[in-house]
Amino acid sequence: MAEQKLVTITIDGKAYQVPAGENLVDAARNHADNQIPVFCYHPKMAPVGMCRMCLVEMGTPERDPNTREIVHDEDGNVKVRWMPKLQTACTQTVSDGMYIRTTTDQVADARNNVLEFLLTSHPLDCPVCDKGGECALQDLTMAHGPGKTRMVFSEKMHLDKIVPLGDLIVLDEERCIQCARCIRFQDEIVGDDVLAFHERGRTLRIITKSDPGFDTYFSGNTTDICPVGALTTVDFRFGARPWEMTSVPSIDPWDAAGSNISLDMRLDRDFGGRAMIKRVMPRQNEWVNEIWISDKVRFGHHFTRAEERICAPLLRNNGNLNEVSWTEALDTVAGVLKAANGDIGLIVGSGASNEDLWALRQVVNGLGSERLGAWPVTHTGGELIAQVGVGKGTNLGKLGKGDVVLIVASDIEEEVPIWRLRIKQAHDRGAAVIVANARKTRMDDFASHTFRYEAGKAAHWLADLKKSAPEAAEAVKSAANLIILTGAEGLTLEGHAALMQAAANLLIETGHVGKPNNGLLSTFPGANGVGQYYLGYTPEQSVAMAAKPPKVLLVAQADMLADDPSVAAWLDKVETIISFSMLPDGITAKFAKVVLPIQSFAERDGTFTNGERRVQRFYTAQGPMGWSLPLWQIANRLGEKLGQGKAKLSAAAVMKEIAASVPAFEGMDYRALSKVEKQYPDVGGASDSYYYSGTACKNTGGLGVVIPTAADKGETVKAGEVKLPAVPKAGKGEFVIIPSTRLYNREAQFKLSTVVHPRVMVPFAEINSADAAKLGITSGDVVQISANGGSVRVRANVNGGAPEGSVVLPRHLTDEPVPMAITVGQVSKV
Amino acid sequence: MNVIRGFATTFKHLLEEPTTLNYPEQVRPFQERFKGRHHLRRYDNGLEKCIGCALCAAACPADAIWVEAAENTDEERYSPGERYAKTYEINMLRCIFCGYCEDACPTQAIELGHEHRMSFTDRRDAIYTKQMLIDPVPEGGRETPQEVEPGVFTRPIPDMENPL
Predict the structure, then answer these.
(1) Are A763 and A807 in contact, with CB atoms under 8 Å apart?
(2) Separation between Cα atoms, residue A303 and residue A94, nearest integer Å
């Protein structure tokens, strides 16, 4: 990076060297430890200068009109020509020789007056307000405001107190100080322009323009950046006072972004007087999620304490599951495993931590089996991520002009919303975003170029980019930085493997490997999809197990039956199934001989490897549900019963073993993973509880460590052969079924968050209008879709979302499973 | 002579009223500001004054108070404001009867009364729940939760007068 140019500014008589072009408010905070108070200014958004809180005195040195020399007074001090009126600091960028005063009476007066003006119509709700205690208006009033009021309470403006903006966020019009942060966040950062000001003057208020209201996946963030308590979430409303809660650092358990979060815990009588998650807040990690999280992360925490949780080991006797002790359950499992003579398979879901994966693998390997399957079998190509994954030091937030992001076969808003948000911003900064998919997705709205290919032919499209999309090929070639992001939508496992290879080849050919902000990304499902690869689990092994079922199958944290209708058939052929599960699912209901209850991410510590290969730590927040244990511990105890050595006492010890045994994790003990460093924009400073007048997102849990790729380490990486797979062809009367992902769905864990239920779509399928006309289907009709030996009834949605001859069928919306990979099936009107 | 003086004192006191009381049959009158056990007050119509803000818990130097809040609706209204105390507990073994909770209360919902005779045979019994602390419904008032007309209680923190 080029050496940053520094300029000298003088704040309150003291000179500081600050980077040129920095915002004055930021510069004062970062370099002069001078917290210029703000309400509307936020470092992540363009300044608007609406609230007038940041008024400062500003001046420039006086120069002699003839000599252009700086004039000094008798004492030898620089004579400053102060501007006659105060200036808003947030709309100024620093320039050389700038003089600022923040402590004069004029400034103090201005701050006092601005606050008094804001308080003329602000209700005295502080005792019941959710923001009370972490409210910028409260604290700035204490610091700069009038000590006494000149207002009569009964003359205050009264507006509506409970205005639902959509299903998740409630607006209190009275508390709003009209800083427009929420509106600007939605517009500038998210790109879902769903909020707006309505009317003028005293009746100015925030409305939602969308139907359904506040239609975005990021609405919760507006409550964080709101400097007052005007926006509250339905989930947390009156849940606790901010000072009562303890923040425990954790990691988003849902997707490959690995957003850093804090679980705010407080005891609750409704949870037996134990600590429970009151709210989920973002935790600053500028490399991963900045200070944003998706609503799924924020509102999807309810499964951790759900009544449905399995609380004791269960053993099947005469067809019924009965509670047994851990000793009995583990003895039974050990007996079954010993009797299997090594004919053992293991399938682990993508939500299991690195420790779990390692500990389970030790057990299975110790019994002479190498069958380690990853679930679900949608994404593959971990070895390519290990070769040419995005370079160490990659930050999506740093992409800009001249850079290219190529997104293939992914509905990224539904799959990894945080990546979608950050790539959208990269697009705003001038990066070219190229989106290729078989159908229209949300990311098309933020794309520089969009391309369509025939369903299932993503790899064909990318492998032959010069012919299929010369424009894209040109852009990729001349890109300063290039990130290729693949999904698996509308692809088979082989299709995704080919796509990954094609992407890797393109990166290697154009030299975009081994550098920060260059390389390969994929929307691996779950929080630890990439970790699975590094610890030896592959989806191909799961496929192999389906073809030749093992005698004993261990299924850990994978709701396999909900993922594809064809799974039940081969699970039937397995003699004994042992399930490690948090919640009852299809396997525990019918197939499992023993069910061992495992703990959720909130009840234990561990690490996840996110899509960018960043290994991040999460901490124990909640007490265990019933007799459940962490998955790694169950595996360790099982190993002990099988004579494989003593069980480890902590997850840290397991991680230490991983660090010593797996080269990729070298040096990654818990201490290394919990290191934090100063980040900009800076959360800390004089007041730890605020982030520029929004709720603090201070990171105390660690920034994580990135696994270097082969290219990072300077090894030569070679392009490989792309094995283009056969694409399913629909015969007469058949359709190509393209399974898609919805962020809000009815997966076993997520459906326990009832607050989000109004936002979950009624099961639907998108059908092309030409096909719909042939079948006599209109939008809203119920259709039956049969494929892979299963069938579901969903509502038809005819709005041009599906290419002709195919049906886009979202996964996990129906109770019955739908296919997880592209296939062919029948569609009929019911 | 000294002997006579001594006996005189003794006989004088024989004739005086005794200073001790026959407790517990007789009870000495309390100072008005005596701080005894807490009461959660109600408005005349039966609604609870407590709005569940937990400032008492925050002010408590002994960490004796536990409050959990919930939202009022017009179908189930406990207090005139937006929020009410779903759980309100005071651990009387921890309480030092300093009265800071009284000072912190924005609605004068919690008041320390004159009741001081509290004894327990079990630690759990020392935790006074909301049911034990709250005043009985005054005459003419209704038990909470009340079903009320929509649009009457619109302020998040009620005015301190008796509603309706």
Answers:
(1) no
(2) 49
pTM attached to this predicted model: 0.94
Chain A nearest-CA distance from B105, in A, is 9
Burial of A556 (0-12, 13-18, 19+ CB in 10 A): buried
For residue A65, give the DSSP letter: T
State whether B156 and A237 contact (CB < 8 Å): no
pLDDT above 70 for A777: yes
- Contact residues on chain A for B83, CB-CB shorter than 8 A: 128, 238
Taking CB atoms and an 8 Å cutoff, what residues of chain B touch A124? 157
A344 vs A689, higher pLDDT = A344
Q: Decide if A128 and B83 are in contact by the 8 Å CB cutoff.
A: yes
The Cβ of residue A7 has, within 10 Å, a number of other Cβ atoms equal to 18
What is the model's pLDDT at position A726?
92
Q: Which residues of chain B have pLDDT under 70?
A: 160, 162-164
* Residues of A whose CB is below 8 A from B154: 158, 161
Contact residues, B window 135-164, toward A, CB-based 8 Å cutoff: 154-157
Q: A360 and A421: one domain?
A: no
Local structure of residue A303 (DSSP, 8 states): G
Q: Specify the CATH number for the domain of residue A349.
A: 3.40.50.740
What confidence score (pLDDT) does residue A685 get?
Answer: 44
pLDDT tens digits along A434-461? 999 999 999 999 999 999 999 999 999 9
Helices in A371-514 by DSSP H: which ranges? 382-388, 412-415, 417-428, 458-463, 465-468, 470-477, 493-509
Tell me which residue range forms the domain holding A439: 382-523
Q: Among A88, A115, A142, identify where a domain stops.
A: A115
Q: Which of A162, A238, A243 sits opposite B70 (nearest CB)?
A: A238
> Which of B155, B160, B161 is the best residue to mutate to test the A interface, defined by the most A CB atoms within 10 Å of its own CB?
B155
Q: Are residues A373 and A386 in the same domain?
A: no
B54/A128 CB distance under 8 A: no
Report chain A's mean pLDDT, rounded to a whole number.
Answer: 94
Q: How do beta strands A614-618 and A606-609 pair? A: antiparallel
Band of the pLDDT at A1, cuts 50, 70, 90? Answer: very low
Answer for the pair A420, A396: CB distance below 8 angstroms, yes or no: no
Range A104-118 burial, b when 16+ CB lie within 10 A, else e: eeebeebbbebbbeb
- Say if B61 is an interface residue toward chain A (CB within 8 Å): no
Contact A436, A407 (CB under 8 A): yes
Q: Which CATH number goes with the domain that contains A25? A: 3.10.20.740
SS3 B155: coil
| Separation in Å, CA of B69 to nearest CA in chain A | 6
